[in-house]
């Protein structure tokens, strides 16, 4: 049975990190292996900046575009040089050709809709990283085959948040990837339409890609290799006393991810749960450290409280222009506009004459939404906010976490408490109350 490994940006951030993959994979060569890889380091952010430059003043002829492009190419060339030197195994020509294609796609899509332009260009981060990693594995004697995920993962044309065509994907994946005795290397995050256009599955989507391949091949296990030893009860970079969770259920992990724990993509767990495929989160730096196991066992879910921060939030309050109620037809209208804008409300509150919600600050989607609402309603907004979510809070915990700052909004149910604060009033490092 196949095992699916996923390596994120941090685990292949430079030549040294890529070298580190070889012993890890060698240890697991006794079984069929699919390796799903993200773009190197922060490449996706840099490709987003390149996209902004391509669509900005000066476009692909401008200095900003050229600088971003050259810096990105130089980083990848540096990794190639460090890994392969002048040897014939270096995929330098292939990587240069991919950079040329990226440049051509920017010129071709400058006038296309933003999301389509995004997918035709940002996908190159993964296409390039996997080309380098595949060549490196072969160079080290680990026989591997590179596969183009744009051909394997079939989606609709909903760019930047593509929806999967499960049956077409399963058919292709089974046909092309089952029963290989070589390591299969492919890209996370990206897919393609029937017409052959690239699509992406949403930021951090490589985890979801790993789950897609595992689901289609009835894999035995998915391992996500990270720069942390497992899933913690809060981001260890932001909470000074975060502790690792040993074992949680698919449902609990989905809740944590859905509320914004930026460690697993929220769509990852569903396809694994359906086939009872366990997900292990492990450290690529200390592979022998005890990992976190996510499976169907729910017994441990509420053992510890978990905290999640969602930053760069915007609070939007919508009121009718006349003295009328914010009734269901009006709420329906407002939520419909949210759906159309491709936005998700992270917290909702309503009253007789107001409907309010908190959104991620994504200007290219948010600004048209606000403009549309202003056409028919009074609209107020406040920016630069932080949403704190606590799963399984113990009594008094939320109050301790809120000390010294006013909550603009809050919500609570049996398992989850949320409060919205001004970011400037929040600490850089948080502490989970005992
Ligand atoms: P990659 O993209 O390389 O797979 P990410 O950077 O997306 O990895 O995820 C790892 C990072 O997620 C960690 O460095 C950590 O700071 C952050 N993180 C946020 N929330 C959590 C959490 N609950 N548990 C563990 N790590 C978390
Ligand atoms: N490279 C993509 C991103 O940074 C996908 C991923 O890493 O999962 O969002
Ligand atoms: Mg990630």
UniProtKB/TrEMBL annotation:
Record field: catalytic activity: L-aspartate + ATP = 4-phospho-L-aspartate + ADP
Enzyme class: transferase
Single GO MF descriptor: aspartate kinase activity
Keywords from the named record: Amino-acid biosynthesis, ATP-binding, Kinase, Nucleotide-binding, Transferase
Extent of the signal sequence: none
Domain Aspartate/glutamate/uridylate kinase: 1-282
Pathway: Amino-acid biosynthesis; L-methionine biosynthesis via de novo pathway; L-homoserine from L-aspartate: step 1/3; Amino-acid biosynthesis; L-threonine biosynthesis; L-threonine from L-aspartate: step 1/5; Amino-acid biosynthesis; L-lysine biosynthesis via DAP pathway; (S)-tetrahydrodipicolinate from L-aspartate: step 1/4
EC number: 2.7.2.4
Family under the similarity heading: Belongs to the aspartokinase family.
Protein name per the record: Aspartokinase
Species the sequence originates in: Billgrantia aerodenitrificans
InterPro entries: AceGlu_kinase-like_sf (IPR036393), Asp/Glu/Uridylate_kinase (IPR001048), Asp_kinase (IPR001341), AsparK_Bifunc_asparK/hSer_DH (IPR042199)
């Amino acid at each position: 049975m196949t095992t699916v490994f996923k390596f994120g940006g941090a685990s292949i951030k430079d030549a040294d990190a890529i070298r580190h993959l070889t012993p890890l994979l060698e240890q697991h060569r006794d079984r069929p292996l699919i390796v799903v890889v993200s773009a190197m380091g922060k490449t996706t952010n840099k490709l987003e900046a390149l996209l902004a430059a391509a669509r900005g003043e000066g476009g692909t002829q401008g200095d900003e575009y050229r600088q971003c492009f050259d810096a990105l190419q130089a980083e990848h060339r540096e990794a190639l040089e460090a890994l392969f030197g002048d040897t014939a195994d270096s995929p330098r020509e292939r990587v240069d050709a991919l950079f040329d294609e990226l440049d051509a796609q920017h010129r071709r899509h400058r006038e296309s809709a933003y999301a389509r332009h995004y997918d035709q260009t940002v996908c190159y981060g993964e296409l390039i990283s996997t080309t380098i990693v595949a060549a490196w594995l072969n160079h080290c004697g680990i026989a591997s085959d590179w596969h183009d995920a744009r051909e394997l993962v079939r989606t609709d044309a909903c760019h930047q948040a593509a929806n999967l065509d499960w049956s077409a994907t399963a058919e292709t994946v089974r046909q092309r990837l089952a029963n290989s005795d070589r390591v299969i290397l492919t890209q996370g995050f990206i897919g393609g339409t029937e017409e052959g256009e690239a699509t992406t599955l949403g930021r951090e989507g490589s985890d979801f890609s790993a789950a897609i391949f595992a689901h289609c091949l009835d894999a035995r296990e998915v391992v996500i290799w990270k720069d942390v030893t497992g899933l913690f009860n809060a981001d260890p970079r932001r909470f000074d006393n975060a502790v690792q969770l040993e074992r949680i259920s698919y449902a609990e992990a989905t809740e944590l991810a859905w509320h914004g724990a930026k460690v697993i993509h929220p769509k990852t767990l569903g396809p694994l749960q359906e086939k009872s495929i366990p997900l292990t989160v492990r450290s690529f730096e200390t592979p022998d450290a005890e990992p976190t196991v996510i499976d169907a066992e729910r017994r441990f879910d509420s053992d510890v409280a978990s905290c999640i921060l969602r930053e760069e939030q915007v609070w939007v309050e919508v009121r009718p222009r006349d003295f009328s109620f914010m009734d269901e037809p009006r709420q329906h209208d407002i939520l419909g506009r949210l759906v159309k804008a491709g936005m998700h409300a992270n917290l909702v509150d309503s009253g007789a004459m107001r409907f309010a919600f908190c959104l991620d600050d994504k200007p290219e989607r948010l600004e048209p939404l606000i403009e549309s609402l202003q056409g028919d309603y009074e609209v107020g907004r406040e920016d630069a906010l932080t949403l704190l979510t606590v799963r399984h809070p113990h009594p008094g915990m939320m109050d301790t976490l809120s000390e010294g700052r006013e909550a603009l909004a809050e919500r609570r149910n049996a398992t989850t408490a949320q409060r919205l604060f001004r970011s400037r009033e929040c600490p850089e490092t948080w502490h989970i109350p005992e």
